[in-house]
């Protein structure tokens, strides 16, 4: 096969792959209906590249490292260094360059290492496909597929690449991704005209669309960026509605940037106006901007997130989208479907009875035939029916099928035996009963009209079963003409009701403590199910989940967005909702300002998994759900989730420490610096001193992602609230400015300080206060009662020692420092202590106010 390669990568596109015969296409692709050999596939993979819709920009670490020098801030610093060199100030130039190199390198290594580990985890859950290689069926990562590969598809599969059908049975595909049309489209083998577009090609399936029902064998003709979805992948990449955390971070970044630009411009203008030396003023402003920018934020974010992801992995939760770690931590509403999460999902068929409530073998037979012949994704109820091996197809064969969908909630198969044809329908009783006009008795020997009285009796029986916690399916049938070939939804009318099948799906015992833990941890749990209200109520009761209000799909239909938001807030149980309604509920809750998680594993859960702030699925879920989820639980167990939530909160807590640090002490210092520079006849700190200060400060904060978080901070979902951050910033900014003013007074009035002394003293004081305050900010407790991690202690104390020893060394002179008189040192130490004490008090007052709901 190796010698029959397609002549060039563009060859498969010469003619649309859906026109002409399938044989011709196979020949063109150098393949056969039994697929490629592994060696050939390997060779093609090298030629065509990986099968991922977006061009993978796998960059070498060197390139990634160099790319950091494109950051605006780094560029400005480089310019500053060059400018100093040009004016002959080689010391400054080399110091700036060294500082720059150091901080970029640190940042790079931290981030790179953590990112690598998280990437490996994601690989574990990468999508896979069933493919024929060397004539045998294998499961391989979808990214390794090449044109010419033959893949096998079934209900629930995600189509791995653009492919032409070679064989198909009742194949229905959802290609809303391409066409926007959410109804399943039927696909079948055959030839399409050459001028048909991809969306009209009924004999081809496209990457990232999903199989609703049926099975198929198909040959891949385009992979990766050459697929239809690859062409629009760029716009898809931007699609995900930003989650709570991402949005807040963006707003925060913007706020700081505005402040920085404003401050720097004002300083620059004042200096120029006062006819200070231009270059010095420029350098000073640049250094200020550098000092103000939370340049470590991206590193802190990615390192805390990757660490969070790794720790979650050890607790059996795989993170697909890194920022979902934060979203999980701040989640305050969890919506979950029922089967498999709250219940065991090992369903047993307990009863099969006719419309009068008598046990009935015919109901079992009809439902069995329906389940046996249907090709959609089998539900656990189908499995339970088919477990009755005593029933046999007994001469029946299938003619056609109207596959299951979550709007109709029923499935029909058209069967034939000895020349007569029967449409057998099974589904949710609410959907089936209105379609029935008759019911049967005595194992189908007698039939009666389903009049009002009979209907009421049947309804009552169905309700009774629901009360007892049984999930119920109804079975009905209808004789069809012997020449009928195709069954349609419209044929599901004037049915004869055969009876009910009742199933038991026992609640999961492990779910009870997990639900309690979630509730205690400030996460409201809501059940969103396509199943019947009574059954869901029963499960909630068994699990001790108090149900405040119930909303059914039908009631929900009548509500507009505004009304739904209000109702959704008060409702615990949503029953008989369709997939689209599930995602409406999620959006409504998000609209109320909740951070919403959604846990589900079915085809019908995919839209909600997308719509939620954090979509959670399980490893055994259908491909579509796995693909849509941000997190995958390796064990179908709510307890695992609770641990993940804690990990998310820990991560969140550490990011908040960095943000509070950057916006309080650091910000306050830079503010005083800007102010002082406008009042003093000399610069309060030289540009290189500010840069050094900034570097040491960054060093001290490198260990923040490794820090411990107090258990009480993990107890409730943290709210990231920009207003609270701003208040914090204002309060601590003022406090630190007060002490800065005191320092200035001591220096200028008591010691009559000239520039070098002033600069040295303030460098030491500002760095020390700035760094030490982390031990106050990192906890809501008395700082002595909460243990920081060893790394944080080491990095902070290290930075402080360097800052306070440097002026007394020879190296200090390079930076323009001079040794301090001992008395001044003592006074400064006193100021530092006084500052820290007042910071502790202020911090306490701040949280006391916040927790008592004061604005
Ligand atoms: N294979 C099937 N044949 C007939 N009816 C079905 C089948 N699968 C599901 N149904 C009907 O559709 C309803 C909704 O399906 P399902 O229970 O899977 O939804 P769901 O929202 O995933 O529920 P859950 O929360 O229990 O997972 C079922 O209650 C049942 O009445
Ligand atoms: Mg489900």
From TrEMBL:
Q: Where is the Cation-transporting P-type ATPase N-terminal domain?
A: 16-89
Where does the record say this protein resides? Cell inner membrane
Q: Which Gene3D superfamilies match?
A: Calcium-transporting ATPase, cytoplasmic domain N (3.40.1110.10), Calcium-transporting ATPase, cytoplasmic transduction domain A (2.70.150.10), Calcium-transporting ATPase, transmembrane domain (1.20.1110.10), HAD superfamily/HAD-like (3.40.50.1000)
For whether the record's keyword set contains Translocase, the answer is yes
Record's catalysed reaction(s): Mg(2+)(out) + ATP + H2O = Mg(2+)(in) + ADP + phosphate + H(+)
Keywords recorded for this protein, A-Z: ATP-binding, Cell inner membrane, Cell membrane, Magnesium, Membrane, Nucleotide-binding, Phosphoprotein, Translocase, Transmembrane, Transmembrane helix
Membrane topology, as annotated: Multi-pass membrane protein
Q: Where are the transmembrane segments?
A: 252-270, 282-305, 728-751, 757-777, 789-817, 823-842
Q: Which GO terms describe its cellular component?
A: plasma membrane
Highest taxon of the lineage = Bacteria
Please give the Gene Ontology molecular function terms for this protein.
ATP binding; ATP hydrolysis activity; P-type magnesium transporter activity
Q: What is its EC number?
A: 7.2.2.14
Report whether Nucleotide-binding shows up as a keyword of the record. yes
Q: According to its UniProt record, which protein family does this protein belong to?
A: Belongs to the cation transport ATPase (P-type) (TC 3.A.3) family. Type IIIB subfamily.
Write out the function statement from the record: Mediates magnesium influx to the cytosol.
Task: Fetch the PANTHER family from UniProt.
Answer: CALCIUM-TRANSPORTING ATPASE
What name does the UniProt record give this protein?
Answer: Magnesium-transporting ATPase, P-type 1
Origin organism is Hyalangium minutum
